[in-house]
Specification:
Largest sheet: none
Oligomer: single chain
Number of domains: 1
Distance between the termini: 36 Å
Structural class: mainly alpha
Order of helices and strands: HHHHHHHHHHHHH
Number of strands: 0
Number of helices: 13
Length: 308
């Protein structure tokens, strides 16, 4: 890696975790907390009581509907939800503090870098919760779509350790993460994800362009094909121009959120910065590997020349 790679990667990690943690701390909580709350409320009601209540509501007088919620049950549910939301905010804050703290301590104490796996697991768990919760188009694909976010935090301990034995692992973590995220985003674009359509319409409106539905769908399908090609290419070849374009395109798509929706959408941009940084890290890594090979070959040639 170049001397700038650790700084770029740690900055991107802090911004990604900050972007995910911000709405958890100050707004409505994480997808994981929402999943746990929903499951608890379903278990509290109970399938049998819920079915009896529905039958009574349909076929019996209102006075005969069984009381499925007692005052104690309602109080317990409120207490559980309040406690879980507090834990949820504390977990988000802890992951943010870990990521921020490691940015200043890892160079002095390299073994601490493995603590990056804690926020990585948190991001992965939230992505899995999004896929289970559903509610949005393509929500079931959240885990591979978010691969660059938790993939960056998985790669960071390997990158900052600067051990040659991890070179192969670093390369494949970066390549697979980029491929998954670009492939899923490409598939969503090709399938005309409504959120992507809204983003195009709003962005075009900001520059006084009246975008027709035909043009919008055509642009998304072109973007989808491009992203799918990039995803395939990144796991088969290492091309500098390709990686630079992936980094630029990842930055453009991340910046499009606050451009379209205003500065309040900055967390949407921050959490997507790894989409741009991961291809750059792969480029830096490939350059370093090539330089090491060149240096090694030069030393071998000198030794062979000196040896009689």
């Amino acid at each position: 890696m170049t001397k700038y790679a650790p700084t770029i990667s740690t900055f991107a990690a802090v911004m990604a975790v900050l972007g995910v943690a911000w709405p958890v701390i100050f707004n409505d909580g994480s997808a994981l907390a929402k999943l746990l709350i929903r499951n608890y409320e379903v278990d509290t009601v109970g399938d049998a009581d819920f079915e009896a209540a529905m039958v009574a509501e349909l076929y019996v007088e209102q006075s005969a509907i069984p009381k499925t919620h007692s005052l104690n049950t309602t109080t317990d549910t409120t207490n559980y939800v309040s406690t879980l939301q507090s834990i949820d905010r504390a977990a988000a804050l802890l992951c943010l503090l870990i990521t921020l703290g490691l940015a200043f301590t890892c160079r002095r104490w390299p073994k601490l870098c493995w603590l990056y796996l804690i926020p990585a697991i948190w991001l992965l768990a939230n992505a899995q919760a999004i896929s289970i919760n559903g509610g949005n188009a393509f929500a079931e694909l959240a885990v591979p779509a978010h691969a660059t976010r938790f993939g960056l935090l998985i790669a960071l301990p390997l990158i900052l350790s600067k051990a040659p034995k991890y070179d192969r692992a670093i390369s494949w973590v970066l390549r697979i993460s980029c491929a998954l995220t670009f492939a899923i985003h490409g598939w969503e674009a090709f399938q005309l994800n409504p959120a992507f359509q809204d983003l195009l319409y709003i962005t075009a409106g900001h520059v006084n362009i009246e975008l027709s539905e035909w043009y919008c769908h055509g642009i998304l399908r072109v973007i989808g094909v491009m992203d799918l090609i990039l995803a395939i290419a990144v796991v088969t070849i290492i091309n500098r121009r390709l990686l630079i374009w992936m980094a630029c395109w990842g930055l453009i798509t991340a910046a499009s959120r606050p451009i379209a929706m205003g500065f309040d959408a900055w967390p949407e941009c921050a959490m997507r910065l790894p989409n741009s940084v991961m291809p750059l890290l792969l480029l830096f890594h490939s350059v370093q590997i090539n330089n090491n090979k060149t240096t090694s070959n030069s030393l071998n040639d000198k030794q062979n020349h000196i040896t009689p």
